[in-house]
Amino acid sequence: MANVKQLVKKVKENRKKAAVASAGKKFVKNVVPEFDIVIIGAGVSGLAAAMYAGRMNMKTLVIGSAPIGGVITTTNDVENYPGFKSITGLELAEKIKEHALEYPVKLEEDIVTKVEKISGYFKVSTESKKTYNSKTVLFATGTKHRELNVKGEKELANHGVHKCALCDGAFYKDKTVAVIGGSDSAAKEALVLTQWAKKVYIIYRGEKIRSEPVNTKRIEEKIRHDKIEIIYKANVKEIKGNKKVESVILDNPCKGKNEFPLDAVFIEIGWIPLSDVAKSLGVSTNEKGEIIINRNSETNIPGAFAAGDVTDTRFKQAITGVGEAVLAVYSAYLFIEKK
Fold this sequence. Notes:
Layout: H1 2-29, E1 35-40, H2 44-55, E2 60-64, H3 89-100, E3 105-109, E4 112-118, E5 121-126, E6 131-139, E7 143-145, E8 161-162, H4 165-168, E9 176-180, H5 184-193, E10 199-203, H6 213-224, E11 228-231, E12 236-240, E13 247-254, E14 257-261, E15 264-267, E16 271-273, H7 276-281, E17 304-306, H8 318-338
Parallel strand pairs: 1-2, 1-6, 2-3, 6-17, 8-15, 9-10, 9-15, 10-11
Antiparallel strand pairs: 4-5, 5-6, 7-16, 12-13, 13-14
C-alpha cells in the first residue's frame, strides 16, 4: 500500500513538473519582441543603420560604448566621404548621429555581452544587466587596435605609448616621435603629428608604405622638408623608458644603432575585429575573425546581419560601412515582412 502511495505521489510530481515546463515553453513562444532591430555598435555604420531603420518605421535600439561615433571620431581629416570635401571624423559622426535621432530611435550607452536566439527572436544582454528582445540584430561592432605585444608597451601606455595622434599629439610639441606601421592610417597619423612634433619617424617592417596616393604625396612633401623620415625593414622589439618613453629597440640597426631615441610612439599596425559576441551566437567568421556576410549584409544566422569594419569586406571605409549598414537594415525589413 505504501508503495502505491509513493507511486501516485511521484506521478503527481512528474505531472506538476511537466506542467511548469510546458508553461515555460509557452511563455517563451509568446514573447513579443519589443524591437524590430537591435543595432550593436554606435559607430558611423551603426548610426547610419539606425537612421534608415527609423525612416522605415522600425522599432530601433542602438547599443554602443563610448565614444559614440566610433573610431572615426579620432580622425582629424576625412576627405573621402561623399558630400564633404573635408570634415573631421568627430563632426561626421555627430552629423550622422543627429540625423538618426531625428527619428524615434533609442540609443543606449552600454556594452552587449551576449546575444541568444530563442524561439525565433533574439535576446540581447548587456553589461549593465539589461535585456532586450528583438526580431533582428545587426552587428556593427567595429574593431580595436592591434597591439605590438612587446616589453614596455603596456607599462608605458599613455606615458609616451599612444594609439591616437589627434588625441595625444599636442603633448609632444617640438619633440621627436614615431609612428609604427605602414598603412594609410599610419601615414595619416604621421601627417597629423607634424603639426606639433619637431620630427616624425615612420617605422615600418616592409619596403614601402601602403598609403593612398594623395597621402603618399603629402608624406613625400614632409620628407623634403625634413619633418618626416621613414625607417624601412625594421620592427620594434622593445619600448624603453623610466616613467615615460625614452627610446625603442629595433631588430635592424638604424644610423648604426639598434636603440633609437624617441619621446613617444604611436602604434598603428592594424585592427582586430570585435566579433566575439557574434561568434558566440554561431555567426560564421573567417580566419581573421571577421564576420562573413553576403551582398545583402546577411550572416549565416537568419535575422542576424552585419556591417562595417567587423565584416569580411575587402575595402573598409566609413562610406562602405554605411552602405553595408543600409543594406542590412533593408534586408532586416524584408526578413520581418516575410515572417
